[in-house]
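Researcher: Re-running this chain for the archive, since the previous output was lost when a drive failed. Same request as before.
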Amino acid sequence: MTPIMRCGRWVFSIAAIAVMGLIPAKVLYAADPVLQIRIRAPQSESDVAHSYFRELLALALKKTADEYGPAKVVVTSLNITQNRALSYLNKGDHIDINWTGTNKERETVYRPIRVPLNLGLLGYRMLAISKEKETVFDQISTLAELKKLSACQGAHWPDSDILQEAGFKVIRAVKFESMYEMLLAGRCDYFPRSVAEGYGEVESIAPDQLMAYDRIIIAYRFPMYFFVGKDNAALAVRVKKGLLAALDDGSFLALLKKHPVTSKVFPLSKYKETKVFWIENSYLSEQTPLAQKRYWLKVGE
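Model: Regenerated structure tokens:
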């Protein structure tokens, strides 16, 4: 059997034999020296952004291999909701790390790695809409007019609370794919998606019926972080070091610019004529690194 190292702990089904001296320790450790970091599976076929976060995590692990040793990302078969994925982190079961938009509660319960994974672009929300409603949205000139329409959102997403607190009409669904199904069925008017996610999703799901409407953007400070279990400081330190190294050498931004899901955001100057409606996010923790300018890209520049 092959020993597997998970988050700094070796797990051996033949450990007792090794202790007895029947297998040399050098042979045992050489069998599989690669640290395996488990992540959830894509939530659905429309979860096209999954591959970006997987590649970014792999990049962070690669950047720290000289210091910590080799590691690889293992995609499990778990197709689970955002909240359930987070719940596994503190248990140490099934997955070791997850990515999600943050709020104060999540940062209290789990351990956040406070480097925004798409450099702040999560907080710039273009609108996935039916092509049939393009003229309706073209006529919107104020935030008050947009609030008269209904938005599909995740049941447990922090941005659902942000939008609702700001006075938006929010229709919530538990499963990710349900939101696009609701949009296609006309049960909501639009689905706010990050500019780093929406283009790829619309193209993947229903390009003949939907469009990524970016003449209006709802904007708020809203970082997406990697989260690990509360007690898993070792993995958090390694991943943060790797992300910062990738920021320093430009490979982080290079991935963001070239990945099929996020590449359509660039150049950011194309949003100069976009209506950007800023709203408050009162759910950010005091530890949010707002002063770190290199963590935050700005559309329109």
